[in-house]
Design goal:
Blueprint lengths: L2 E5 L2 E4 L4 E8 L6 E8 L6 E6 L6 E3 L7 E6 L4 E6 L8 E9 L14 E2 L3 E6 L1
Parallel strand pairs: 2-11
Antiparallel strand pairs: 1-3, 3-8, 4-5, 4-9, 5-6, 7-8, 9-10, 9-11
């Protein structure tokens, strides 16, 4: 199985930027599609972005489209989430997730992913 660890969260003012990183270990990173989700207190886990194993296909949730960018570096076993124009409603714990690349790439639901990190807190002040 693959292990993933998020980093890069923190406190930022509205309009600012953060870049989250997710480092993977344990298996061949390029064999996994990767996703980012977030969860605010009292809310369900929400799809943020996903990227296929090669980095050739990316997908975004409607609330972050045009502001966030997902990317990956298979040589560094790392996936990134660049977050720009942050809003207070982006405040949440952000989770990195991994899914083995065999089969169709269903990416919007938490249940589509088998492996999860512990999360990193992102707080956007107004």
């Amino acid at each position: 199985q693959v292990q993933v660890v998020e980093s890069g969260g923190g406190l930022v003012q509205a309009g600012g930027s953060l870049r989250l990183s997710c480092a993977a270990s344990g298996r061949t990173f390029s064999n996994y599609h990767m996703g980012w989700f977030r969860q605010a207190p009292g809310k369900e886990r929400e799809f943020v972005a996903a990227i296929n194993w090669s980095g050739g296909r990316t997908y975004y949730g409607d609330s972050v489209k045009g502001r966030f960018t997902i990317s990956r570096d298979n040589a560094k076993n790392t996936v990134y989430l660049q977050m720009n124009s942050l809003k207070p409603e982006d405040t949440a714990v952000y989770y990195c997730s991994a899914k083995y690349y065999i089969g169709s790439f269903q990416y919007r639901r938490p249940a589509d992913y088998a492996y999860w990190g512990q999360g990193t807190q992102v707080t956007v002040s107004s």
